[in-house]
Amino acid sequence: MHLMEACIYMYEASGDEAYVQGAKDMLELFYDKLLDPETQTLGEFFDDDLGPHPSEGHFVEAGHHSEWVWLLKRYQEVSGDNDPRLDQTMSALFSWVKTHGIDPEHSGVFNVQDREGRILDSNKRIWPNLETIRAASIMVDSSEHGDDAKEMLVQLVSVVQEYYIDTVTGNWNEVLDRNMRPVTSDRAGTTPYHIFPVLREAAGYWHCCR
């Protein structure tokens, strides 16, 4: 995922077409090994041959499904690739997150599910919520998902503002439990990578939902 992302950013910075080819190679790996064609889900753990890990191969994360919606869209925009699989996969991944990733009682995005959508970790890290905001901001223009995406966008922005980020201090809650109570005071150094770019890129869509 992040190698493909790096190729996209490097192409934008350098104009070197080799990075587009690198991103395309990662896309083919995604379709060949990472995306399960039957369930349209993305595994988290693999064996040495990139088959599902024997004990953890059924783990999936809604947050990474959302992140791939954004990544496929960025690849599409940068490469000009009209591969019909891209729109189909973005739609399938977003549908899965909408159906299985969001807590219907308290909102927020669960950490880990299995391929059938059963919750394996009901805690909610901040980054899956942020990545789902970004995915929803992309899907607001979808004829199939637009209304649901707008509702999701408004709901999760509210959740992030109320429960996760203190806009006065700049601190955030890294992990909440199912009932939206903080689990830890630790803050991962990787989290700002999700906070700033996601909010910057999604901001242009918020006006349509207010």
Q: What this model shows, in words?
A:
With 210 residues, this protein is mainly alpha-helical. Helix content is 55%, strand content 6%. The protein has helices spanning 2-14, 17-34, 62-79, 84-101, 126-139, 146-164, 191-206, and strands spanning 35-36, 41-42, 112-113, 119-121, 124-125, 175-176. The strands form 3 sheets. A two-stranded antiparallel ribbon has the order 1-2. The chain has a two-stranded antiparallel sheet with strand order 3-4. The longest helix is centred in the C-terminal third of the chain and has 19 residues, at 146-164. The two termini are 32 Å apart. The model has no long low-confidence stretch (mean pLDDT 93).
Sum up the structure in keywords:
two-stranded antiparallel sheet, mainly alpha, 6 strands, about 210 residues, two-stranded antiparallel ribbon
Task: Going across the biggest sheet, name each strand in turn.
Answer: 1-2
Poorly predicted sequence stretches spanning 5 or more consecutive residues: none
| Mean of pLDDT | 93
Distance between the termini: 32 Å
Please state the overall shape, judged from the principal axes of the Cα atoms.
Answer: globular
* Portion of residues within helices: 55-70%
